[in-house]
Every structure is written in C-alpha cells, then in structure tokens.
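During the first year of the project, the team set up a workflow for recording each protein of interest as an amino acid sequence followed immediately by a discrete structure-token representation. This format lets reviewers and collaborators read both layers of information side by side without switching files. As required by the reporting guidelines, we include two representative entries from the current panel. The first entry is reproduced here exactly as it appears in our internal archive.
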Amino acid sequence: MANHDFSFAGGDLLRKMDASWFVSYYCYLNGDTSQLNWQNVSPKSCRSRKLVFRKSKQFHLFWLNEILKMDPNKLGKNKIGLTGSDVVNMANTLLQNPQFLANTKNIDNFKKWLTAKGIRSNKAIGDAVSRVKRIMRKYDINGWYTVDGCKRLKKQFEYPRKAEQAGLKPLVNIPFKSTNYYDGMRSLLDALKLYIEYLNS
C-alpha cells in the first residue's frame, strides 16, 4: 500500500481500504462495470474492504477531494494495477456524480426555506448559502445527516475562544483567508445549524 498521509477525517478507515481500491470500487458501483481493478485483492481482503466502504459513506465526498491532493506517484504504487493518473481521473469523474451534484438542488430548496423562515435580507441568505457551499465542498452534509443527524460533523466545527487563545487551528479541512478562526468558524457553524434545521423540516 502506498505511504500516504491519512491524517484527516476518517483517514484510518480509508487506509484500511487503500485510496486506489476505494476509487476503483466506487467507480464500479456507479456504473463503470469495466472498472474491475478492485477485484485484484484476495476474497477475504475484498470482503473486509467492502464492509469498511459501506460503513464510511459520510466520508466519501471528503475523501475524493483529499485523493485529488495526493501524490500520483504514490497512488500509482497500489497493488491493484492502476496508475496514479487513473486514480485521480476517476476521482474527478466521481465528483460529478449526481449523488454529490444533488447538493445543488438542496441548496435551491434551502434558499426558499430561508425566505419562508422569515429571513428577508438577500445578504443574510447569500451569506448562509455561501457558507454551506464552502462546507459541502469538503463534507457530505447530507451523508452525515443520515448517519447521526450531523452531530459528529457539528462537533468538528466547534471552536471555542480558548482554542483561539491557545493558538490552535480548527479541526475542519477548510481554508481561511484570515487567522481570525473564531469568527470564521462561528459563522460556518451557524450556517451549518441552519442547514440542519432545513433538513429537519
């Protein structure tokens, strides 16, 4: 297995499958029946990896984005016969999957829900939508919602003042233009809570 840095959310689970195997199997499940490289492991190992795959759906979108950042040379050192470029290209294709693009429809409905909730300011609506989109680029909110109502995801976005005072960085893998993490994280968490309230409605 290639020596990647898996120090991100769910990385221990992805390590158990191997990033290249994960992408290959995901492509197969999403209609590319010619993609069979995932079968190039032992039957026992395959069963084990499939089990991890089924139990980690909330991470899949996030992992695909992380895989795009990985070194193709390391990705190419897999044992299932894929080049690093193959893996990256397939990950890019998967990110166009309707499962993830469906977030666009949810965002449109979210806008309508915000208006119905009584939020009339176009700026307030725009800010909330923009922040939810920022989160969605890295995290499958809808996937987390089906798992535990986003309880664990919300926990990752909590960033108390004492964390800022201690000079700690946020747990989430979202870039910030400023080092004023407290205000940035608070605004993202507020937007996330609104989106969860929308999903509950």
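The second entry, processed by the same pipeline in the following quarter, appears below.
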Amino acid sequence: MTRKKWCLIGAAILGLSGIGASINPIAQTYVAPMVKEQVNNAINGSVNYDSLRINWNGDVVLTDVTIKDRDDHLVGTAREVAVGVKLSALPSIITSNTSGATAISSVIVEAPDLHIWQLADGSWSVEKLVKPSDPNKSGSFDGSVTIHDGRVAVRTKDGIKEKCRKSRWYYGA
C-alpha cells in the first residue's frame, strides 16, 4: 500500500475513535437518564446500574445492574447487560406510536444472578415484573436474548429451594 492509503486508513481509525470517545460523555449526560426512565417505566419495580456506555455501533451497555420488584425485593443482578439497538427503527419510535421493543435487536446478559420465588397464590414473583405492552403502540420484540454464566435460585411456596447454574442460555424470537 502506498503511504497515502496508510494515512487515510489511520485518519479513519482516529476519526472513529474520536467519535466513540465523544459519544460516551453525551451518553452519560443525555442518554443515561432516558434509558433509566424507560427501563423503570417498563417494569413494576426498579432497575439501577453503576454505569452506561454506548459502543461505536450504537449498542447500550449497562454495568453492575440490579433489579428489584415493587416491594423492593431483589430479583436479580448482572455484571453487564448489552442491548443491541436497531438505529434504523429509532425514527419511527420517536415520531409514531411504535413500541421501543422494536428497536432492540439483541440483549446479552453477563453473569446474572436471578432470584425467583413462588407466591402464596401459586404465581411467581417475576410474572408481573414486566408491565404489559401498551395496546396503543404497535411493534414487538423480535430480537434475541443470550445469557452467559447465569445462576438462578428458585423457592417454591412450600419453601423448597433449587439452584441452577448454566454457562449459556439463548432465546431467539
């Protein structure tokens, strides 16, 4: 390759690095509060995380995530949750009544620790964690969910406890 081509490749790499570095302060200031609000509006409980970053491809990555139900019971934690975003779907979400779920292409959860218990009426603690979809908004989640190094602790209403650990779970819609 000629010197000119090497210089152009170097400039492109530096430009992409600069864009990536400049996105994260913007993400912390503007995107992080919106993500926290949207996530907390989607569940009957709360989601907290230590940090948020946006990768060069638009993926939103949350670290040290904690989920609690509406009674403030711990439902789960995860070291990292990466949400792939279909950037092409964002304009239709902003300008119309399309569900935000349509913009999610994938969810990858690293090292989750989930706590699920059966209630006295026989239902499970996580059944009502996610709020129902808004019937006035179209679209649905058609992405994939991958869980790496997950642990689940289950307790039945009779007090029987079970623990499960698996290195990889995958769900594709």
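For the second entry, the following points were noted during internal review. Residues 3-42 form the longest helix (40 residues). Helices lie at 3-42, 90-95. Both points are flagged for discussion at the upcoming steering committee meeting.
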